Recover the amino acids of this structure.
């Protein structure tokens, strides 16, 4: 296959201290056929304007939404837009990535390489070689428990179901009905992998090192945990 076209989707909410550096680090990899799609939810800190500025220099498309509507719906909107591109500009590989440097841009080439043999690659903190830096014990426990819970309820063989650094072949997204998603928030990560698995795709995991954000505020809260708890049960029993 010729060099695959790669699109990296980055949802942003109040990431003014991170976005510029991240975009430059991604394009600094000098990968061919790479573009970024930023979905900004009218960030009060002006991240959307920074995105527009960056789009003047780099191959970036910015989707502006009028208010904060959740990570899951941000991805869904970006995926729908990508799938509606003219066929010659449709990306072959589509990444999900956080804006806050928790996901290391230097690991992007590892995903692309692994995509030769897989339909979808999950960046995993819980396989050999993966890890987490600077999370407190409580956050680690919640993540561990969330993974064990969803693995068990959904009968999935993957170690990291809640991570947000992952890559899909376009056909995987085409196979998933993006209008039937029940998750608005972070549970989206579990739901996409579950649906891809049910559709029979070959899903692989590679180790990543996740780093706690250095700048900006965490949006993680109890509502996110509760959404996942309930929605995983919904997924299991309603599909
Ligand atoms: N567009 C959009 N982006 C969001 C929303 N919520 C979170 N994000 C972005 O999604 C990515 C992941 O969110 P984070 O807040 O970093 O979530 P996290 O990594 O679980 O938690 P912290 O890093 O501790 O805050 C970041 O790039 C956020 O800016 C949202 O409602 N809309
Ligand atoms: Mg984060």
């Amino acid at each position: 296959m010729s060099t695959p076209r790669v699109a990296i989707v980055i949802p942003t909410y109040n990431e003014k201290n991170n976005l510029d550096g991240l975009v430059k680090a991604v394009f600094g990899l000098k990968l061919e056929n790479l573009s970024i799609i930023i979905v900004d939810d009218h960030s009060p800190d002006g991240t959307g304007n920074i995105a527009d500025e960056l789009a003047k220099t780099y191959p970036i498309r910015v989707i502006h939404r009028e208010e904060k509507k959740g990570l899951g719906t941000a991805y869904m909107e970006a995926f729908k837009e990508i799938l509606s591109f003219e066929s010659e500009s449709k990306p072959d590989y589509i990444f999900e990535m956080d804006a806050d440097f928790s996901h290391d841009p230097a690991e992007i080439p590892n995903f692309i390489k692994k995509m030769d043999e897989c339909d979808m690659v999950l960046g995993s903190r819980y396989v050999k070689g993966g890890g987490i830096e600077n999370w407190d014990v409580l956050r680690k426990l919640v993540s561990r428990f969330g993974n064990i819970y969803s693995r068990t309820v959904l009968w999935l063989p993957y170690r990291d179901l809640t991570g947000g650094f992952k890559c899909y072949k376009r056909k995987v997204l085409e196979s998933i009905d993006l209008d039937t998603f029940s998750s608005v928030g972070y549970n989206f990560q579990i739901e996409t992998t579950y649906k891809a698995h049910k559709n029979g795709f070959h899903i692989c995991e590679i180790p990543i090192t996740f780093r706690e954000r250095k700048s900006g505020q965490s949006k993680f809260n109890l509502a996110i945990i509760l959404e996942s708890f309930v929605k995983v049960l919904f997924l299991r029993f309603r599909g």
